[in-house]
């Protein structure tokens, strides 16, 4: 990862696919996820339910180097949340918006305003396979002016579908993932012959209330008018509130009002613009959802 993109990232996929589905709505957070879903009971030896480090939990004297090893594993899991936050947040949104999720064989997800962060982490979306036993095909469509994989020589700027590798277990089951990209804005992509409405549209940190407001506005109107289930994440509560204000003016139906996303990254970043000193923010810290027109939240 560092050699390709100049960044270092940790990934913490499940070691095996689950044979039964545990709704993420029944999982209290990252600690509970690692213990109950990912089957990592070792975490009980060094982390509290709020995921703070506590090397006294085992009640035993650690062997030489034991403290360093457990601390390193705890750190690795925290950094792994930087990438795992994406598939877990998406799957949680699908739970809320698709009543028939656990019987679906295929899912189509459009990721809007994509950047290198999403593009370089396409592999982590296989985690949706590992968590959702009925799913056999996942199609990802990346759309945005900075979409790095678009084929500009092809009409309409749409890249060729790319088959993504799956782990040996998923491959043996005949599961498949594919990715397509479009370099441009979403409301223009929706006019192309290749466009089909997704099961979920995702806007990770679009910043549409902070910058590029005019360029995002037609896409926002399209999402509302087309009754597309849409997930949005932001770094701050203020950002989320500003974006929802726009949706209220469009009379969008709020599936989920802004709240802290329990699947946000565990790696803090200092918010230099905050009024209170040392207030951190996290990737996918706040989330909300909308779909179609209406009033209130379900």
Distance between the termini: 40 Å
* Number of DSSP helical runs: 9
Write down the secondary-structure element order.
Answer: HHHEHHEEHEHEHEHEEEE
What is the CA-based Rg, rounded?
Answer: 20 Å
| Approximate helicity band | 25-40%
Q: Count the E strands.
A: 10
- Average pLDDT confidence is 88
Q: Widest sheet: strand order?
A: 3-4-2-1-5-6-10-7
Q: Largest sheet at a glance?
A: 8 strands, mixed
Report the β-strand fraction as a percent range: 15-25%
Give the overall form.
globular
Coarse structural class: alpha/beta
| pLDDT < 50 stretches | 1-6
Write the layout of secondary structure elements.
Layout: H1 2-5, H2 30-37, H3 66-97, E1 106-112, H4 116-119, H5 127-131, E2 137-144, E3 162-164, H6 168-172, E4 176-183, H7 186-189, E5 200-204, H8 213-225, E6 230-234, H9 237-249, E7 252-260, E8 269-270, E9 280-281, E10 286-293
